[in-house]
Design a protein that fits this description.
With 61 residues, the protein is of the alpha+beta class. 34% of the residues lie in helices and 28% in strands. The chain has one domain (3-56): 2-Layer Sandwich (Metal Transport, Frataxin, Chain A). It contains two helices and three strands. Strands 1-2-3 form a three-stranded antiparallel sheet.
Length: 61
């Protein structure tokens, strides 16, 4: 999955960028009080994408 597609889906679902780390971006879902990191790679592995969606409590696209 392309990183840009994953980020746009996160933002559509109400998640927002909390901060930028060295090699990751940290996203937060404030209503559900959940946080996860998204690596800065062009391609995100499908299993990792599923884990990010699960960590933030949102459905996959």
């Amino acid at each position: 999955m392309k990183r840009q597609f994953l980020i746009s889906h996160l933002e559509k679902m109400g998640c927002e960028l909390l901060r930028e780390g060295g090699k990751h971006s940290v996203y937060v879902n404030r209503p559900k009080k959940k946080v996860t990191t998204v690596p800065r790679h062009r391609e995100i592995d499908e299993n990792l994408a599923k884990r990010i969606f699960k960590d933030l409590g949102i459905p996959k696209p």
